[in-house]
Amino acid sequence: MDVTTPVDSELAVKQWYRLRETLLDLGHTVHELTPEPGLPDMVYAANGAFVVDGTSYGARFRHRQRAAEAESHRAFYEAYGWRHVSPTETNEGEGDFAYLPDAYGGLILAGYGFRTSAAAHAEAQEVLGRPVVSLRLVDPRFYHLDTALAALDDRTVVYFPEAFSPASQQVLAQLFPDAIRADEADAVAFGLNLVSDGRHVVLNSEATGMAAKVAAAGYLPVPVELSELKKGGGSVKCCVAELRP
């Protein structure tokens, strides 16, 4: 995100392909979003929508540089026959929403404070028909929920408490008393920007502390090198939009 820091574009592409191969090797199906000229942040595909039970709640990006991405995501979901709802409120898709289908009968955790408006949480609840818990992000280093919290399976989360307001920390502690708590080093290394299938946890290779924590909890960490994509402010989760039919 620092434009003075050079990015090795060739290496970035290689790292993206390695992430794709890793997901395929784990047995997952990967659909590719067709890139559009002039929209380099499309690589962070998680931000374009949030999907629950075959309905995609679309994005309305805060910054104009990314605004055109929303149309590409809408076209993608509609091409696959998904119900797509375009939002009226500012939100950045799965970057600020997480879904836990087995927690409290199906619960959405939603972040606000930097990229997504709190009003979008109420809109998402109406569109998706699931209760939404609003969590206020207070540290600008962790501007999306997916940089500070992740679902490890259908009812378990890992999060960095200090990324949230004191009240939101209390809510998380009450809802998830057995959650894994990350430290600042884990979060700064984008260790929470992960994708988990309930067994394998794909995460940034720099996040060695986070890998150790999830391994101790019984998950299998799968490190992937994403140094160049991290320079753009994203890691594993940012590059992956999870499809929930």
TrEMBL record:
User: Could you tell me the keywords of this UniProt record?
Assistant: Hydrolase
Keyword ATP-binding tagged: no
Q: Which InterPro entries match?
A: DDAH-like
Coiled-coil regions listed: none
Q: Does the keyword Hydrolase apply?
A: yes
Q: Which domain of life is it from?
A: Bacteria
User: What Pfam families does this protein's entry cite?
Assistant: DDAH_eukar (PF19420)
Which family is it part of? Belongs to the DDAH family.
**NCBIfam families assigned:** DiMArgaseDdahMtb (NF045659)
Under which name does UniProt file this protein? Amidinotransferase
